[in-house]
Amino acid sequence: MRVLVAMSGGVDSSVAAARIVDAGHDVVGVHLALSTAPGALRTGSRGCCSREDSADARRVADVLGIPFYVWDFADKFKEEVIDDFVESYARGETPNPCVRCNERIKFSALAARALALGFDAVATGHYARLADGRLRRAVDADKDQSYVLAVLTAQQLRRAVFPIGDTPKPAIRAEAASRGLLTADKPDSHDICFIPSGDTRAFLGARIGVRPGAVVDAAGTVLAEHDGVHGFTIGQRKGLGIAGPGPDGLPRYVTGIDAETGVVRVGGLADLEVTELTGAEPVFTSGSAFTGPVEGQVQVRAHGGIADVVAEVVDGALRMRLRSPLRGVATGQTMVLYRPDPDGDEVLASATISATQ
Is 49 a catalytic residue? Predict the structure, then answer.
């Protein structure tokens, strides 16, 4: 089998590539250039896609004895991920750019090019497992990335390979060291890769500009002014620009965002609780929608935000009734439906949250 391995320059994709080679496949490594102006070096462990990362991936490919290429996807990444991220925040939503990158870049644009060039599959260093074409959580619960992969269609999953999902992260590093791979001790990237400074508000502000609005309480009393709804997310407690706690002496949180009027509402912790979620454009990993109510668990953030639910498809949307409320759920987030399983929870469906109740 001809396999294209996406090599970020980190330890996970390095070991993924090595395992595919060990399995006897015809392997080619590719590094995705996603920035129009990549930095020479990383800043600590923030971000990725620097020239240093590309060089590290090339060195690993040399050790493994596989061909290696750098493919320029910067324009596509800006259009499909960065612009989408900015526009979503401008609408008062809270998107996950890693989800969009997997959906539109790694397993859409990259996979399409790979198939056009005669490759049979695309492998990555994601922590997830595939069994009979069905996506499951990784063995390492702390590193599990099935959430950000849940937007993949059944057809895309059939062409995907996740070689390291059956191994805990410490063992992956040990394996890299034993193979003599220089990425063995390389720090993991974190935060948003295209915002290496970590200052999301400044990044958005520079692209959206000033759009004044008001911070109000449940009664509509104006508590503060702000420069744009992009500086707020549901559940946010700090940086609200208001003086002190509420009348009850308890902290106040962002409970609602109206991008059209510029109003940001704040309230108490109880005001953050949601018991029903509606998701647009659902994706079903089996390839077809289920026909009746399904019991399972929903996850609304990459790490955490899990509750038991009853899910069903209503008028083309995925609707979930929560057995117990979740807090701080925002439109624009991805909700993923899992079927609990001792051998690894199985992903059943995903959708972008369009409404909460």
Answer: no
